[in-house]
Design a protein that fits this description.
The protein contains five helices and two strands, in the order H-E-E-H-H-H-H. The longest helix is centred in the middle third of the chain and has 20 residues. With about 110 residues, the chain is mainly alpha-helical. Helix 2 crosses helix 3.
Length: about 110
């Protein structure tokens, strides 16, 4: 690779470093989530991957300490982005309950 030629997304990533925090999740992280959603290969960028995985780990830490924790909208967006990650049975149950808690808190209990 030509050292003078930057990755197509690299210049865009630089603008996110000075952004403030929104809902407890840094705006930079949310901006990188948008990049990852819009560009299929973006998750392969080490900055994107490490930032999003660090945010996911922080969310999981909250859920493991308090299974009734209700994620913020931004936390849910990150958590949902990684929904395809393989989990063992216990963690899958916690993840399903966390999603249900979010939806029930946001939209109310589902009634048939």
């Amino acid at each position: 690779m030509n050292p003078n030629k930057m990755s197509p997304i690299q210049p865009d990533l630089q603008i996110y470093y000075s952004m403030e925090t929104l809902e407890g999740i840094p705006a930079k992280t949310m901006a990188l989530l948008e990049v990852a959603r819009d560009c299929p290969g973006a998750i392969d960028n080490p900055v994107v991957e490490s930032t999003l995985r660090e945010a996911l780990q922080q969310i999981w830490a909250k859920l493991l300490v308090n299974p009734r924790y209700v994620m913020s909208r931004d936390e849910f967006a990150i958590f949902n982005f990684f929904q395809g990650v393989e989990l063992d049975e216990q963690m899958a149950k916690i993840a399903a309950e966390a999603r249900a808690n979010y939806w029930n808190h946001t939209w109310g209990e589902y009634k048939q």
